[in-house]
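In response to a reviewer's request, we include the raw inputs and outputs for one of the modeled complexes. The two entities were modeled together in a single run.
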Amino acid sequence: MIGPIASLLIALLLTGIVHLASVLALPWLAPRDAFSRLAELAQDNAMTLVAQDRAAEALPYSDPAVATAICRYVLDRGPVRVRLRTGVGPMSLLFLRKGAGIYHSLSDKAATQGVLDAVVATPQQMEAIIERDSDDDAVQEIRITSSDIVGLVVVHALVPTHSQRPQVERSLRQATCEVESLDD
Amino acid sequence: MTRFFLALAAAFIGGLLGLGLTALSVETPPDFGVVRAGPWMTRPGIGTAQADPYSRALMAARGILPMGAAEGLMLTASRDSSGAVLAGACTYRISGPVPGGGFWTLSAYDGNGRTSHASDLRSGLTSDEALRFEGEALTIMLSPQAQPGNWIPVNSSGAFELILRLYDSQTSAHAIDASALPRITREGCP
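The model returned the following structure tokens for the whole complex.
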């Protein structure tokens, strides 16, 4: 017999299950999350500088004193290398995957000789990269493993004073995001 | 047969309540894991793969990109130091130390996360732009009317929020305390 108490228990149990499942699923299902908004402004395997007003329009609560460049990486043809010169203010690289959000971040403190050099690869590609390492040369690049083929790299460069924005944006335009061949 | 419908109705109501609870947790996020210091609050770990599910759902639903863990620390305030909601019509004085010792930015936003300003004016202040006077604590004024010294203009209608971002900061979200952060004092309202 399903009485009022059993019905109440069913309702409570389902409330809990549905609530937990929907909270966990939201980052994957949300159509207008930061990942989707940024992906619309990005090109595949190429770095794009985002104009300040477009960045402010696309992302709520973004820092007006930050210059942004984005690259959507697609790892089906090989790992992707991101390179940029450090500049006048702090810079950082954010690595995003749909659902996972920011899964890795780097600041310019990780740069060697003023260059921030990072390689994004799938776990299989990473194995191949590590295999080719020689014992003589120290590894200069920072290696990031992405469990998804597609993701985003966001470059944030703080503009210390408003008048320095052109200078910071010029240096971000020099940033690259390119597929690397593993065959040679 | 009635038993079956009763169970079905219970399941339906349970499902609806579950979704409602999720909508509510995004609209008015629960304080799980939130660190507060005076008027400022932060969600540790939000810019990492270890972010808690509620913070993650909140960011996804609102389309917010948090600061990366290596990027720095983000502190939000929606109330002044006395606990009153920040109103755009009022004038506020933000004064005191900024932790971290590195670059910081302070920006004001409306309820939709748009920078709260008249379009041709600045919508925030950076540590390099801030004027400092010998022997005085750093002071920043927030007001819809022009102020001498450091002034961040805000839209006079509605409430606003402040975000203090500490770049390159090694300050841990768990180590911050109110005495190391600026106070937000209401100076007056029209």
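As requested, we also summarize the result in words. Chain A touches chain B through 61 residues (CB under 8 Å). Helices of chain A lie at 4-29, 34-39, 52-58, 123-132, 165-173.
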